[in-house]
Structures are given as structure tokens and as C-alpha cells.
């Protein structure tokens, strides 16, 4: 391994040499690599601008406006009730990001914009990111000392009376996680399910619609439970929602499968380990714990873990993204003898670990 690191040190000295950079950009065999690296670096530098272009398109309703067909700048500006000059500048920017595309003198949906229309829950997350961006305005200050006074920490504060807001966001964004889980895991082999930290019950409702005979219970904090109860009634779902705080009380027993859907990474290490131990205590012999969330160090989606969720959870004031190896270590400490990954179709959205 030492030789590998020495090679990488040599590589970094070479890459940082201005004369080598000029040579690599001019030599035909290395020019495509140099251009690719320059583009990657520029994309990192300009990433916030790109995200704000997407935010503006979502906030103004550009994608739904173009759903039925292409429009000129004047037509689009009239449709979204926005000045022509600003609409033209935004549309041209969106074309460069493949959110829109040019068709003569008109604008139409691009491949990315069309894909977004197929995932309306993404719109909710894009709008929500305004809260995260407020905290990231001073990233050095944010990282200097973790605080519970950030905008994101206040948004997710269960004691601040905003449970309807954050539970609504979770419900909107839970749909694609539920679809991912249900596409690869068979709940039909279980008798009873308890969903810990299930919020407004979106995941549990999705499971019950596919497995109506499965007994189902949702556990969450007192001010969240009524939201789940309301959703069960509105959806015609037979399920129970009960109050629980795993840091203060035991979890209900009786279910042979317990789910943690985007819950574990919200908690710091001591709380995450306490939760896993409480679940091990609640499960019967042979019972299963199913963890579903984005993980750190996911091949091909590394920035989603330690970059996006690393900064998001830091700003939230609790939790961190963990790798598959780290979660397995936690599970072993909690008393689980076996832990295997259930492969998902889109691991960038969620990876699944089944433990027993």
C-alpha cells in the first residue's frame, strides 16, 4: 500500500505543475483527459449556480408549463408570469444543463426536465434545499462548530411544532424509497411489520397496499403519530400508529420484521447503536431488521454519501452517512449475528441491509 500512496503523491505533484497542465492540454493523447478533468473541476466550482438554475425552474413552474409542448420565450414568460428577459436567460441556462432543449425559436423539455416531471417528489426536495443553502452560505462557519441553531436543525426540530411540514416532506420523498424496497424485498414471508420512525406513514401505506394481509404498526414521537393515523384513514389502510421514543422506552414487541427507512443516518453514533440494540431486544428469534437508506462509499454514487448527506446531516445537527461496513459493525455490536445487503435497482437512492 505504501508504494500506491507514493505513486499517488508523485501523481499529485505532477498534476499540480502548471507546465505539465499546459503540456497535457496540448498533447493529442492527453488532451481529452485534461479537458475532462477541467470540466469536472469547473462543475464542482459552479455546482451551486447549477442547483439554483434548477431551483428557479421548479419555483417558477417551468417544467409543468412545457409539459404539453414547446413554447417561445414570450409564450413561456406569459405562462409562468415572469419577465421576458429573465425567462430567456433562465431558459438558455436550463438548456445548457439538459433541463430544457431548443427547438428552433422555441423551448421544450430536455431529458432531465422530463425525468423530473416523472418524479414530483424531487420538486419538494429542490424547494426544501433553500433551507440547506441558507446554512451553506458560510460553510466554514457551519463546519467550525456543530449547532442546533441552523435553519435546517430548526426545520427538523420535533419539539418546535413543525411536524406537519417535515412529515409532509418526508411523505413526498418516501415514495421512491418505498418503490425501491418493494421491488426487491418480499414482505409476504412475514406476519407482522413495525416501521420505526415512519413519520406520516407513507412507507407503511405503500407496503400495505402490496401486502394487505400484513399486520402493520408505525412507531414515532407523539406529535407525529396523529399525522400517520390520518393518512391511514384517508388511504383506507388497516394499520396502527403508536407513540414511542426509543431513547426513553422499550420498543413494542410482536413483529417479525422491523424497518428503518431513512432513519439510522439521522442519528449520531450513540443513539444509532441504542436504537439497534432496542430493535434487537424487540425482535423475536429469527426476526428481521430491514435498513433502507443511502449509504456512504456507494460505488458510482460516492458524492451522495459523504458530500451531500455528510453536509446535510451536519447542518441538521444530528447523524451522519455510514458505509455498509460501518453499519455491519454497529449491527454486530447490537447483537445481530447476520447482516446481508439486498441489492437495489438504484443504490443512489437507497441500499438495503437485512439483519437477523
Describe what you observe in this structure:
With 356 residues, the chain is α/β, with parallel strands linked by helices. It is built from 16 helices and nine strands. It has a seven-stranded mixed beta sheet. The protein has a two-stranded antiparallel sheet with strand order 1-2. Helix 2 (18-26) packs across helix 3 (31-60). The protein is globular.
Please name the defining characteristics of this protein.
alpha/beta; two-stranded antiparallel ribbon; 55% helix; 356 residues; 7-stranded mixed sheet; single chain; globular
Uncertain regions spanning at least 5 consecutive residues: none
Strand content: 5-15%
In which order are the strands of the major sheet placed?
A: 5-4-3-6-7-9-8
Alpha plus pi helix count: 16
Shape designation: globular
Give the N-to-C terminal Cα separation. 35 Å
Mean pLDDT across all amino acids: 89
Number of strands: 9
- Class derived from helix and strand content: alpha/beta
Q: How are helices and strands ordered from N to C?
A: HHHHHHEEHHHHHEHEHEEHEHHEE
Report the major sheet. Answer: 7 strands, mixed
Outline of this structure?
It is built from 16 helices and nine strands. It has helices spanning 2-15, 18-26, 31-60, 62-65, 73-80, 84-96, 111-117, 120-136, 139-144, 151-155, 163-184, 202-210, 225-235, 269-282, 302-316, 324-334; strands at 100-103, 106-109, 192-196, 215-220, 240-243, 257-261, 288-293, 339-342, 351-355. The strands form two sheets. A seven-stranded mixed beta sheet has the order 5-4-3-6-7-9-8.
Amino acid at each position: 500500500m505504501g508504494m500506491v500512496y507514493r505513486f499517488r503523491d508523485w501523481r499529485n505533484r505532477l498534476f499540480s505543475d502548471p507546465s505539465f497542465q499546459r503540456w497535457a492540454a496540448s498533447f493529442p493523447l492527453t488532451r481529452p483527459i485534461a479537458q475532462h478533468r477541467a470540466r469536472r473541476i469547473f462543475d464542482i466550482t459552479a455546482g451551486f449556480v447549477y442547483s439554483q438554475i434548477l431551483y428557479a425552474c421548479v419555483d417558477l413552474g417551468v417544467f409543468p408549463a412545457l409539459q404539453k409542448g414547446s413554447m417561445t420565450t414570450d409564450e413561456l414568460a406569459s405562462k409562468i408570469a415572469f419577465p421576458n428577459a429573465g425567462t430567456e436567460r433562465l431558459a438558455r441556462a436550463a438548456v445548457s444543463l439538459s433541463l430544457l432543449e431548443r427547438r428552433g425559436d422555441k423551448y421544450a423539455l430536455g431529458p432531465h426536465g422530463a425525468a423530473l416531471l416523472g418524479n414530483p417528489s424531487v420538486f419538494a426536495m429542490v424547494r426544501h434545499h433553500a433551507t440547506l443553502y441558507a446554512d451553506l452560505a458560510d460553510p466554514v462557519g457551519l463546519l467550525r462548530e456543530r449547532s442546533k441553531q441552523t435553519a435546517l436543525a430548526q426545520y427538523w426540530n420535533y419539539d418546535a411544532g413543525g411536524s406537519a411540514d417535515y412529515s409532509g416532506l418526508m411523505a413526498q420523498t418516501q415514495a421512491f424509497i418505498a418503490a425501491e424496497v418493494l421491488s426487491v424485498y418480499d414482505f409476504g414471508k412475514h406476519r407482522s411489520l413495525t416501521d420505526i420512525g415512519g413519520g406520516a406513514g407513507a412507507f407503511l401505506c405503500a407496503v400495505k397496499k402490496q401486502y394487505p394481509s400484513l399486520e402493520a404498526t408505525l412507531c414515532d414521537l407523539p406529535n407525529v403519530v396523529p399525522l400517520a393515523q390520518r393518512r391511514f384513514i384517508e388511504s383506507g389502510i388497516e394499520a396502527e400508529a403508536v407513540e414511542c421514543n426509543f431513547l426513553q422506552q422499550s420498543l413494542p414487541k410482536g413483529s417479525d420484521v422491523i424497518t428503518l427507512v431513512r432513519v439510522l443516518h439521522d442519528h449520531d453514533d450513540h443513539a444509532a447503536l441504542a436504537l439497534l440494540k432496542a430493535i434487537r431486544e424487540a425482535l423475536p428469534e429469527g426476526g428481521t431488521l430491514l435498513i433502507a437508506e443511502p449509504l456512504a462509499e456507494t460505488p458510482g454514487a460516492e458524492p451522495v454519501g459523504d458530500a451531500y448527506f455528510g453536509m446535510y446531516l451536519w447542518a441538521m445537527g444530528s447523524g451522519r452517512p455510514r458505509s455498509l461496513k460501518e453499519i455491519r459493525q454497529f449491527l454486530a455490536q447490537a447483537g445481530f449475528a447476520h447482516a446481508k445487503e439486498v441489492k437495489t435497482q438504484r443504490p443512489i437512492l437507497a441500499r438495503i441491509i437485512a439483519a437477523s
